[in-house]
Amino acid sequence: MLTRHTWHIPNTMTKDQIKKARTLLAKAGLTEENKKDLVFSFSDGQTDSLTAMGYEDTQLLFAHLEQLVGQPPSEADKMKRKIISLAHEMHWEKPGTTKVDMKRVNDWCESMFSAPLDGLFYLDLVKAVSAFNQVYTKYLKGI
Q1: Which of 39, 32, 85 is nearest to 61 (CA)?
Q2: Which residues contact 127 (CB under 8 A, 6 or more apart)?
Q3: Is-above-0.90 flag for pTM?
């Protein structure tokens, strides 16, 4: 019997994200103290630990480090950032903050593609960007 796998985006970095962050930090030549300061600033003072960073903060840190070391973001990362950017434009933010409500974004992705944003494969990301652009267009028409 097949069962539907329920995807879950953790509130903290995954093992793969930690590896990516540590690789980028090493390429940037940052000291442990620099790393803690950077994490603290990207988490809005919530933590100085990579493993405790939230999803959106992690994505912003990656973008910064990739730019710092001259490594272009992957096409998949660009598409995810596009969706998050459009969510910002539509004010899909946590109450009282300027941070995107990733639960809302993930719920939308799951309703459309049966997986959260980070669980989407490349071809589904292409479709998700197109569909999210349509949601954004409808939002603009409603203003």
Answers
A1: 39
A2: 113
A3: no
Structure tokens at 112: 């459309």
Alpha-carbon distance of 71 to 54, in angstroms, equals 22
Alpha helices, DSSP H, located in 9-101: 15-28, 32-42, 55-69, 75-89
Q: Are 50 and 13 in contact (CB under 8 A)?
A: yes
Q: Residues of the chain with pLDDT > 90: what percent?
A: 41
Q: Report the C-alpha gap between 66 and 117 in whole angstroms.
A: 20
Taking each helix axis from N to C terminus, what angle separates 75-89 and 102-113, rounded to the nearest 10 degrees? Answer: 120
End-to-end CA, the chain? 47
